[in-house]
Amino acid sequence: MRRWFRAWICVALLPAAALAQPVPAPPEPPPALDLHEQVVRIAVTVRDLYGREEKREIPVTIFRPDGGGPYPLVIMNHGRAPADRRAAQGRARYEHLSRYLVNHGFVVMLPTRVGYGETYGDFDPEDAGSCQSPRVEPMSMAAVTQVLATLDHARRLPYVDAGRWLVMGQSVGGLTAVATVGSAPSGLIAGVNFAGGRGGNPQTQPGEPCNPGATARAWSRIAPNARAPMLWLYWRNDRYWGERYPQQWHAAWTEAGARAEFHQLPPSGDDGHNGLGADMDTWVPLFEKFARSLGLDVGHWPARPPADAMVRVDDVSRVPLGAGARAAGYEKFLQSKQPRAFAISPSGAWAWATGDWAIGRALGNCQSRRGEICRLYAIDDSVVWSR
Predict the structure, then answer these.
(1) Which helix (H) or strand (E) holds 61?
(2) Which pLDDT tens digit goes with each residue over 187-231?
(3) CATH class of the structural domain 16-293
(4) Which residues of the chain are in CATH 3.40.50.1820 domains?
């Protein structure tokens, strides 16, 4: 039975001048020392819809827990920006998601596929042709080939249990996750689709992707091959797909015999397409329940420590930092909106965050500065520092 399918990618039509002047790649971010961040380059051979075949090296970001493992693996896949911004996508990291997964005991590997970041240029294996006659079987093959090449590399790493792995992805990366599950590779235990799809243009046709029926038909064709269950997470105010088309795609997938738990979540910000990073407070509990159903031992991270009723949150003098750090950091934290969190390291590094998943982001921002394990000092209006 055929494993690959026809769909087409999410990309806006751009004027030639825009295509001729791509936005330059961003500078490399500082490594997340506490996550043992590493970048490797692996060779992949991919073919586009015109039959052109190229061998390229792609960067793969690796985050992993402390210790020797072996740990289960997550391969996370990025989305697809318009042509003039694909170089500016840079190296895929998804640091907040990766930090969350590493603290649950996963190794996370993120391939930056051919045609994005440092490999952006004259070869785009994810070009699917026109809206009227999309041809993305080559795109699907190229994307999943790179997932499986990443898996092959993971099999050589002593700290990875490649016999237990999950595939995840956002937007076109979510489409890649669905395609990977549809190809039924060995060792795959589940897939997670964050707002996956193709054909969206939020500027000119918000909520009305081009030819959405092609996605439904494509996913129904590969669904009989699928063996692993999936979790599908969409947001009602997704400006790429809208509310009804993800429901139709899910129906096509499951009615053809595949398994997927579907959630359409309340609106998130101005565009629910970004809910992966902007709405962790909502989707994390759903993922944890799904992971436990797979037999994966995941608990809530980070845990919220109990409040210390003996110390007031606005007593700046009690914060175990120097005067300069108190003024630069903690006093600004006190002026921020809730939800909020403030974290401190043993050597005096600090960070704070406000909004969605504030506790995890505060700890992560603090720990990544020096690779130390930080502790929470305050959450919202409570001091949680343990004496």
Answers:
(1) strand 53-63
(2) 999 999 999 998 888 988 999 998 888 889 999 999 999 999 999
(3) alpha beta
(4) 16-293
